[in-house]
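Title: Prediction job returns without error message
Component: structure pipeline
Severity: low
Priority: P3
Assignee: unassigned

Description:
Job completed but the reporter wants confirmation the result is attached to the right record. Sequence as submitted:
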Amino acid sequence: MTLRYLQVTQPDLQREFLLARQNAAHPHQLPALSVPRSTSSANPPTIRQALAAARHLLEMYRRQISDNHTQRKLQRLDRRLLAVVTQLDRITQPEK
């Protein structure tokens, strides 16, 4: 009796599962980051803010990727952006 019960409900369960997946909202929405839109105010704080936003989005994307090779490439890119931020900070600091 149990086997017959499972054979009857298995297609129903699969159908309902697929319908639920199609109708489900995205579990995680990426946050909207404040990136300056105008290039007329291109100054070091604005550039730093844009780099921070790019690094954040890159990290959120990297966490969704399952391929280790791609993850390592994205980590290297993040380190390069961090180096740019560091150089920008050195440029904008007053000399001693």
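Comment from assignee: result matches the submitted record. The radius of gyration is 24 Å.
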